[in-house]
Amino acid sequence: MSIKIAIVDDNTFLINTVKEKLSFFDEFLVKFTAINGKEFLTKLEDNHNLDIILMDVEMPILDGIETTARVKKKYPHIKIIMLTTFDNDEHIFNAIKAGADGYLLKEIDAKNLHDGIVETLNGGAAMNPSIALKTLKLLRNPLSIENETDKEVIKLSNRETEVLEHLSKGLNYIQIADNLILSSGTVRKHIENIYRKLQVHNKLEAVQKAQKNNLI
Question: Which residues, listed in sequence order, are joined to residue 104 by a DSSP beta bridge?
Fold first, then answer.
């Protein structure tokens, strides 16, 4: 009997990577995929015969944590494993509160992903070792998450800070490149690094987070 799976991630390359890992196992059947929480919830209305959802945490329009909370409210029997690039304390804490059944890093190999899915369907909680340790710490002292979030340390290079300051003024890639005497490709690479370090998806989120953390 097939294990029916849905994959939700705003990166289609990563969706395909996960599908490839699942394809090694005959019992897995990917019913559908979605690139954000809103699209997923729409598809779920027409096709909620699922066993498990592999859910990205950070997505535009509707993120994985809010989507998880909505799914669990309406379909509590469907298991959800969060798949993320970062073992971020705040994300782990919020995912658990939202009702996530497991939490794995996207770099996981096919065998461990298979075992995590089976473990979760059997009533366990699939977690990478590093995430399991953080989860224990958070459960022992849940209030510490607020303090740790306030003390979040983000390090940008001087050039990345300059690019971010120009972004905050509403300049586009070409204007920033002209002002800093860089190629537009170099500016684009700096912005990709900024988004990755800040764990954001767009210019508005980057500027807001940078201002919150006194980076600009």
Answer: 83
Q: How far is Cα 205 from Cα 208, in angstroms, rounded to an integer?
A: 5
* Amino acid residing at 62: L
pLDDT at residue 211 tops 80: yes
Q: What average pLDDT does range 155-160 have in this prediction?
A: 90
Provide the H-helix boundaries in the chain.
12-22, 37-46, 64-74, 89-98, 110-121, 129-140, 144-150, 158-168, 173-180, 184-198, 203-212
| 203 φ/ψ angles, rounded to the nearest 5 degrees | -60, -45
**Residue 191 amino acid letter:** I
Q: Which two tokens stand for residue 171?
A: 């300049």
Angle between helices 110-121 and 12-22 (to 10 degrees): 80
Taking residues 22-39, what's their average pLDDT?
95
Structure tokens at 128: 């990478």
In the prediction, which pLDDT does 161 show?
92
Query: What is the separation of C-alpha 153 from the centre of its chain, rounded to a whole number of angstroms?
Result: 19
Cβ 92 vs Cβ 147: under 8 Å = no
